[in-house]
C-alpha cells in the first residue's frame, strides 16, 4: 500500500486523466460521474448495443470496484494507477472478450473470465472464482463460448 498522501495525489491525477478522457467518447456513450469523500465513480454506457458498458469506482481506501458487461469485480486492490486510462480506452475500442465455460450436459455456466487488451499490448484479466479452477477446453463436459464487443464508434 502507498502512504495516504502519495495515494491521494495519484488518485486525483488518475481521476483528472479519466475526466479528460471522458469527453472523447461523449458522442458515443452516456457518461455519469459521482464523487464523494470516500470514492469516485464513472459509469459509461455506450450507444451501440453490442459495445461493452463499464462502471469504475475508485475508493479512498486504495481499492477499486469494476462492473464490465455483465460481470462485477469488487474490492480489488489498486496496485498501480497506470492502467485505468488505457483500460477505459481499450473498452471503448472494443478490445474486450468474455470467456464463458458452459457445461455441455446441463447448460449451466461454470465460470467466466473477462479480458481487456490494453493499448500497450498488456492484458487486464479477472475471473469469477479462481482462474486456476477454470475448466479445461479438453474436458469433454465443457464448452467455451466467447463474447466479443464492438467499439463505441463504428
Could you give a quick summary of the protein structure above?
Helices cover 18% and strands 41% of the residues. The chain has helices spanning 4-21, 84-92, and strands at residues 29-35, 39-46, 54-59, 63-68, 71-77, 96-103, 109-117, 123-127, 142-148.
Task: Summarize the structure in words.
The protein has 2 helices and 9 strands. It has 154 residues and is of the alpha+beta class. A 5-stranded antiparallel beta sheet has the order 1-2-3-4-5, with no helix packed on it. A 4-stranded antiparallel beta sheet has the order 8-7-6-9, covered by helices on one side. The longest helix is centred in the N-terminal third of the chain and has 18 residues, at 4-21. The radius of gyration is 17 Å and the shape is globular. The protein starts with a helix and ends in a 6-residue tail after the last strand. The mean pLDDT is 89.
Give the spatial strand order of the biggest sheet: 1-2-3-4-5
Report the sheet-strand fraction. 35-45%
Radius of gyration: 17 Å
Query: Percent of residues in helical segments?
Result: 10-25%
Secondary-structure-based class equals alpha+beta
Order of helices and strands: HEEEEEHEEEE
State the separation between the terminal residues, measured CA to CA.
40 Å
Mean pLDDT: 89
* Total beta strands: 9
Shape: globular
Give the low-pLDDT segments.
Answer: none
Please outline the major beta sheet.
5 strands, antiparallel
Total helical segments = 2
